């Protein structure tokens, strides 16, 4: 019995070692979204293309992507060609022009092409806050029952698209 | 006159320095201002890890500070403001974790360990005493 007790610190050390080892290499910047598994929040936003007011009910039946972007965002330039590819392959994308202005946004879509079914203006970033957005680009997957199932922070590209695609149901 | 200018200049500089870190905000009462200050120090900036909303100058921190200001002025309680943020950004934004089953060990783990330590200490003392008693 006494001999066994002597091994307790060693066992504790091993357990701690394994726990810490498993945490190694994890992305420390990763932050889970509070919205996963919840319905898309309500909103009232004006569209970039036709100046009409849109609400949640005007969005297509899922699954679709919601992509937060802005002309001020360098990574959005990088992401744009891949979004064009996705749009061409028939993936519905709703664009949220996040904390941006109308004129440069229109110019951007004219020059680079428009991958979005619909672009809504979130000039003050209020819808962004409701979605828990911390910057751009951010992309959410909304499934066919209107539930937010996945959030990707940063550029969507060919490498991470399969992960997002897996949630498009 | 020279002195007056100097004083005026230093006052202007002092004011501009004190408003640099955070934007000027109007509060309807001194209490609201104090509540705002303590809330932005207790809420974590979701973009820039390890900084509070008060410390950070990132775009989202500026927006969220303004939001906290608005919510307070709308008459929301501190708890309602915190709940509002948690609903959108998750418990990540809390510098003071909630008491829940997930944070049980975080809050009470140290006390449990302390209890175990005291228990072990007492056991060792008792065992030693018994042994000494036998030796005498």
Automatic annotation (TrEMBL), chain A:
Location in the cell: Cell inner membrane
Primary localization: membrane
Signal peptide: none
GO molecular function: disulfide oxidoreductase activity
Key word Disulfide bond present: yes
InterPro entries reported for this sequence: Periplasmic_diS_OxRdtase_DsbE, Redoxin, Thioredoxin-like_sf, Thioredoxin_CS, Thioredoxin_domain, Thioredoxin_ResA/DsbE_sf
A Pfam family annotated for this UniProt entry: Redoxin
GO biological-process terms attached to the record: cytochrome complex assembly
Domain of life (superkingdom): Bacteria
Residues annotated as domain Thioredoxin: 34-169
Entry GO CC: outer membrane-bounded periplasmic space; plasma membrane
Keywords: Cytochrome c-type biogenesis, Disulfide bond, Redox-active center
Protein's UniProt keywords contain Disulfide bond: yes
Membrane topology reported for the UniProt record: Single-pass membrane protein
Family label: Belongs to the thioredoxin family. DsbE subfamily.
Name of the protein described by the UniProt record: Cytochrome c biogenesis protein CcmG/thiol:disulfide interchange protein DsbE
Automatic annotation (TrEMBL), chain B:
GO molecular function: metal ion binding
Pfam families: CcmH (PF03918)
Function: Possible subunit of a heme lyase.
Alphabetical keyword list: Cytochrome c-type biogenesis, Heme, Iron, Membrane, Metal-binding, Signal, Transmembrane, Transmembrane helix
PANTHER family: CYTOCHROME C-TYPE BIOGENESIS PROTEIN CCMH
Example GO BP: cytochrome complex assembly
Family: Belongs to the CcmH/CycL/Ccl2/NrfF family.
Annotated protein name in UniProt: Cytochrome c-type biogenesis protein
Signal peptide positions (record): 1-21
GO cellular component, as recorded: plasma membrane
CcmH/CycL/Ccl2/NrfF N-terminal domain mapped to chain residues: 12-131
Keyword Repeat (UniProt): no
């Amino acid at each position: 019995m006494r001999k066994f007790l002597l091994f307790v610190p060693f066992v504790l050390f091993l357990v701690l070692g394994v726990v810490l080892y498993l945490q190694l290499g994890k992305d420390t910047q990763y932050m889970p979204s509070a919205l996963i598994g919840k319905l898309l929040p309500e909103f009232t936003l004006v569209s970039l293309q036709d100046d009409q007011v849109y609400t949640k009910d005007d969005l297509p039946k899922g699954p679709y992507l919601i992509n937060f972007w802005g002309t001020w965002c360098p990574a959005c330039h990088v992401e744009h060609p891949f979004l064009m590819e996705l749009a061409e392959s028939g993936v519905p994308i709703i664009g949220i022009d996040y904390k941006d202005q109308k004129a440069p946004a229109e110019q951007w879509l004219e020059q680079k092409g428009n991958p979005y079914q619909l672009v809504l203006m979130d000039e003050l970033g209020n819808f962004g806050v409701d979605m828990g957005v911390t910057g751009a680009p951010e992309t959410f997957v909304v499934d066919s029952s209107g539930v937010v199932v996945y959030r990707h922070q940063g550029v969507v590209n060919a490498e991470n698209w399969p992960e997002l695609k897996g949630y498009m149901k | 006159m020279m002195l007056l200018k100097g004083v005026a200049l230093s006052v202007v500089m002092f004011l501009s320095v004190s408003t640099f870190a955070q934007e000027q905000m109007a509060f309807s009462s001194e209490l609201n201002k104090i509540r705002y200050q303590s809330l932005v120090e207790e809420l974590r900036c979701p973009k820039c890890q390890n900084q509070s909303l008060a410390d950070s100058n990132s775009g989202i921190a500026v927006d969220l500070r303004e939001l906290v200001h608005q919510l307070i002025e709308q008459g929301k309680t501190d708890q309602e403001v915190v709940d509002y943020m948690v609903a959108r950004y998750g418990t990540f934004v809390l510098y003071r974790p909630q008491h829940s089953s997930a944070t049980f060990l975080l809050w009470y783990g140290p006390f449990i360990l302390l209890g175990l330590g005291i228990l072990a200490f007492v056991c060792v003392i008792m065992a030693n005493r018994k042994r000494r008693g036998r030796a005498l």
